[in-house]
Amino acid sequence: MRSPPRILISAYACEPNAGSEPDVGWNWSVQAARHGNEVHVVTRANNRAGIESELARHPVANLHFHYLDLPAIFRWGKKSGGYYGLISYYYAWQVALMFVASSLHRKHHFDLAHHVTFANDWLPSGLAVLPTPFIWGPVGGSTHRLPPQPELLLPRYARRHEWIRSSTQRLVYALDPFVALTRARARHILAYTKGAMAGIPSRHRSKARTIIHIGVSEADLLQAPAGVPEDGELRLVMGGRLVHWKGYDLMLEGFARYLKQGSGAGKLIITGNGPYKSVLTDLVRRLDLGSRVSFVGRLPSKADVSDLLRTCSLYTLPTLRDGPPVAILEAMALGLPVLCLRLGSTDELVPDSAGLKINVGSREQVVSGIASALAWAELHRAELHQMGLRARAHIAEFHNWNRIGDDIQAIYEETLAPPQQAKPA
What we know:
Elements: E1 6-11, H1 20-34, E2 38-43, H2 48-57, E3 63-67, H3 72-80, H4 82-108, E4 112-117, E5 134-139, H5 156-175, H6 177-185, E6 186-191, H7 194-197, E7 208-210, H8 218-222, E8 234-239, H9 248-260, E9 266-271, H10 277-286, E10 293-297, H11 302-309, E11 314-316, H12 326-333, E12 338-341, H13 344-349, E13 355-358, H14 363-379, H15 381-398, H16 401-416
Parallel strand pairs: 1-2, 1-4, 2-3, 4-5, 5-6, 6-7, 8-9, 8-11, 9-10, 11-12, 12-13
Helix pairs in contact: 1-16, 3-4, 9-14
């Protein structure tokens, strides 16, 4: 009897029920194992407690974890260095992964190596050195740039961050031999959006394809959908990390204009924490929004997120550069329509029939567009509810983890299939 394929997955971020990239690392690994493969995952040691607790409650056959962390001095640098500390630590972790993966390969003789997280196309993967077929992805990120419009009112630290980020990306993307090796060794490159395909160099694009990489579980889809309230104030929610590129300031200005126009009563609830919070709280004060805006911080569990979403009429996130946001996916799965910009990954993620999309132009045009969209939503609750149901149906069809698992398995089988023999003439 033929033994199942042995697959080594690199998932730096991997934790059940954690959302964002940790959720991607966990679910891609679980799906690979549930499709009959023997799966070994290398991840960070700080993910161990959550992983082992989940596996104790819900065992997954043929799924094995190996934990890798760098010495304490590297972890201190990661913690104290902010974004730059994280990127430096991640790069060093990939170097260490080369040796760990090679040792594991000598023991287990893997048939396939697969880099899953970080979903990043401008930094390398330590799995690229293994003498096995190698899949790189989901990846993206190098095309994420703040657009020339709308005009952005960025604090000094944010302008500095954008300059250093883009300069570092361009340098590493173009000149780093480890990144070049990762691209060259990849049998398949999986880009997480159509926009991300533009970040793959043209000489490697023939082996690249797009793939849906974020999903929801069957249990999520079995929940009753949220219902848009037929009357009362228009309750809006947005959240995630409070950072300067997610368009929170545009949303606050548009919300303030909607209220000033006397279109109706409204409440905007902002979840999460981050370095941009002080800028936002100052903006709330200057716009005289007062009790109309609530900062509720990071919600401790998915159940808390779900409970909040069920009280709201519309999820809003006019982000300016991002990968597909998991927060939007969770809102759509519950039946909430989405307000976003007609830009980037959110434009790809949200069907036109499932949300209110704001055209990107000058700051005045975007703010005015948000205000007009909110005024429309206030007067068209039934249509808003139907948008939410279409959002939920879209997620159920295309972003179901089981469907994503089938897509992953098809790529594995394609990669492991023997080469086609040319037929004699």
